[in-house]
Amino acid sequence: MQNVVEVYIKDRKNGLFVVALAKPIKKTDLTVLRRRGWNFNFLQLLSSGYILYKIVYNGQLQGIVAFIDDPDMEAVRVANVESAPHNIGSTSEHYAVGAALFSIACWYSFQCGEEGYIFFEAKTELVKHYRHILGAKLIRPPQGMGIFPEQSRKLVESFVKEGMNTC
Is position 167 within any domain? Predict the structure, then answer.
């Protein structure tokens, strides 16, 4: 299985997509996140067996996604997705980072044989956003959501540089 993949994120200054690297995160990357304004405890997820990928552009961390292959559900279960503090809000440096992070989980789902099935719990205020931006479906109200193979394929084609050719 390929570990490093190129993904697209959008530069807010010029509105153009740029190529960033998505790669597995190291434990040492996680030790300073809380002090730098990150919300989630990714170190705990890593210790619990979750797979963590980071997106890096120009040497700077842009976001992190944590997921796990769940063979019983025949899907990849996403635990957390977080854009870097400098990518949140109207003054962010880059946007579409969240969609790129979800596309990594979709890409991984194809890689590990789960055919693009993704499940996650959305924060209540993000359900509509995920429906609109990711094409996710509400499958277990009020917050249980899924991304199914056709939409996963679209996300991979949109945000992973080599698209489905890497799957």
Answer: no
* SS3 call for 13: coil
**Neighbouring-strand partners of residue 70:** 75
Cα angle at 128 between 74 and 65, to 5 degrees? 50
- Tally of domains within the chain: 1
Q: Which residue has the tokens 């209540």?
A: 124
Q: pLDDT tens across 59-100, in order? A: 999 999 999 999 999 999 999 999 999 999 888 999 899 999
CATH of the domain at 121: 3.40.630.30
27, exposed or middle or buried, with CB in 10 Å at 0-12, 13-18, 19+? Answer: exposed
Q: What does the alpha-carbon distance between residue 122 and residue 35 come to, in Å, rounded to a whole number?
A: 25
Task: Give the pLDDT confidence of 135-161 residue by residue, as tens digits.
Answer: 999 999 999 999 999 999 999 999 999
* Contact yes or no for 167/110 (Cβ under 8 A): yes
- Residue 122 counted as domain residue: yes
- Domain span at residue 151? 5-161
